[in-house]
């Protein structure tokens, strides 16, 4: 499959660049972001664009694009998977492979806050914009929204996030906001995953934009998710992050999904690069929680 994918993608990009737009036009759109089980199961793959290629002890795991695409194709073929979240380079490859029919598609918008950089909070919009998401027939856009109270770049980052929320809401497209309270620690940004910090990030993110009818939240699973999810009426998708203890992670996801605003999962590395290498098995187990 790897060699076939390579040939199809490279041939189109070299000889027929318009094939991407044609594939987007042909794509059969999802009728709802939720699957037949009433919940979303979205595979995330926008990490490389922020320079975050590592999984576990392998610092370059996601840097092999063709292996990443193979894993994405396996994941997207599994029953119950409803969509994908990625940057334009990856979504266009998936369009060329014809694997996005019937799936919700979300474009990742701000990727300039490169992992480990001194400007990580200055997370400018270098990926999708609302106009292109609409033109491609996609379902919405996602913005990482880190709030560092000790970093003067935070107001500009919030302003950019609010602008994206406005532009997506104006087009009746989902604005998927992923907020964190973040702190500088030993020269690196760390997200505060305490319950109080996550609640504060939600209350700040919920106020972004002049319209919020199409705003959803993408939230980490932390302690006391009942209190976390009670801090907003917005629909919430739960993020997986990098998982060290799969059993504990799946148990915590299942418990959080019982809350009324929890509408599904957005999981990337822990399903695409499970410790046992079984992508299909990891995805099926996550879907079973729904």
Give structural notes.
The protein is of the alpha/beta class. It is built from eleven helices and nine strands. Strands 1-2-3-4-5-7-8-9 form an eight-stranded parallel beta barrel, surrounded by four helices. Helix 2 (19-26) packs across helix 4 (88-97). It is globular, with a radius of gyration of 18 Å. 45% of the residues are buried.
Key structural traits:
290 residues, 38% helix, 19% strand
Q: What summary fits the major beta sheet? A: 8 strands, parallel, barrel
Q: How many helices in DSSP terms?
A: 11
State the total count of DSSP E strands: 9
Mean pLDDT: 93
C-alpha end-to-end distance: 30 Å
Shape verdict: globular
Question: What pattern of helices and strands is seen along the backbone?
Answer: HHEHEHEHEHEEHEHEHEHH
Helix content: 25-40%
Radius of gyration computed on alpha carbons: 18 Å
Enumerate the strands of the largest sheet in spatial order, edge to edge or round the barrel.
1-2-3-4-5-7-8-9
Q: Which regions contain 5 or more consecutive residues with pLDDT less than 50?
A: none
Structural class estimated from helices and strands: alpha/beta
Strand percentage, roughly?
15-25%
Sequence-ordered SSE layout with sheet pairings:
Blueprint: H1 2-15, H2 19-26, E1 40-44, H3 65-77, E2 83-86, H4 88-97, E3 104-108, H5 130-135, E4 140-147, H6 154-170, E5 174-185, E6 188-191, H7 195-206, E7 215-220, H8 225-229, E8 236-239, H9 246-256, E9 262-267, H10 269-272, H11 279-288
Parallel strand pairs: 1-2, 1-9, 2-3, 3-4, 4-5, 5-7, 7-8, 8-9
Antiparallel strand pairs: 5-6
């Amino acid at each position: 499959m790897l060699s076939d994918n390579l040939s199809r993608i490279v041939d189109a990009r070299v000889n027929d660049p318009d094939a991407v737009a044609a594939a987007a036009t042909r794509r059969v759109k999802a009728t709802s972001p939720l699957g037949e089980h009433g919940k979303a199961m979205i595979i995330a793959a926008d990490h490389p664009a922020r320079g975050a290629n590592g999984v576990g002890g392998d610092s370059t795991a996601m840097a092999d694009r063709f292996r990443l695409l193979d894993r994405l194709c396996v994941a997207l073929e599994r029953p119950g998977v409803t969509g994908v979240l990625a940057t334009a380079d990856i979504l266009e490859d998936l369009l060329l492979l014809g694997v996005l029919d019937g799936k919700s598609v979300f474009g990742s918008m701000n990727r300039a806050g490169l992992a480990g950089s001194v400007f990580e909070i200055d997370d400018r919009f270098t990926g999708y914009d609302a106009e292109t998401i609409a033109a491609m027939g996609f379902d919405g856009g996602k913005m990482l929204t880190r709030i560092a109270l000790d970093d003067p770049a935070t107001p500009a980052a919030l302003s950019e996030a609010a602008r994206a929320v406005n532009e997506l809401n104006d087009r009746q497209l989902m604005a998927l906001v992923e907020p964190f309270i973040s702190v500088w620690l030993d020269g690196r940004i760390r997200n505060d995953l305490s319950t109080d910090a996550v609640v504060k990030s939600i209350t700040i993110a919920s106020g972004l934009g002049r319209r919020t009818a199409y705003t959803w939240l993408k939230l980490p699973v932390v302690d006391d998710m009942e209190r976390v999810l009670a801090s907003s009426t917005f629909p919430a998708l739960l993020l997986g992050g990098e998982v060290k203890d799969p059993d504990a992670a799946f148990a915590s996801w299942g418990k959080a999904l019982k809350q009324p605003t929890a509408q599904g999962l957005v999981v990337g590395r822990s399903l695409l690069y499970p410790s046992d290498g079984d992508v299909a098995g990891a995805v099926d187990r996550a879907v079973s929680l729904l």
